[in-house]
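By way of example, what follows is a protein record of this kind.
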Amino acid sequence: MAAVFLASCGLAGCGSVTAGVDFKAPAGWTSTPSILGRMQAWMKKARDNKQDEMVMLVRGSNANIDLRTIPQVGSNSMSMTKQSTITICGNQKAQFASGTGAGHSGGKETMEMVSATVGQDGYVAMYLRPQSDPADPAAEAAIRSLCPAKS
């Protein structure tokens, strides 16, 4: 988690993390304060009640964020199982990556990431959970909700 946080700080700047997008965080998850208006996380306890599941949204000024440049993705602790181009929001192209690796509590974690450009900003949405837990459909929907904000 620390590497993900440090990568997020590298994209930090000013403004609201959800500016320009219709991002929908999972209902009922606990929100952290926005960091510099560029990164925010939502958490809930995992089934083992020891770890947390987390959805994180990062907004960067770089319109084309390559998921392979995020340290957690390229680290020795994360083994990527899938990288592809997907379509979200009807017809918007995005990058998707998923993998497994060592979690902060010593257990295995699963990570899913979506990266998309909306307007002039690049967004990365991540979902981290213990590998032993099934995916939360609301969390998976959240990371795919990088759609332009409706006026």
Q: What stands out?
A: The domain at 2-143 is CATH 3.40.1000.10 (Protein Transport Mog1p; Chain A).
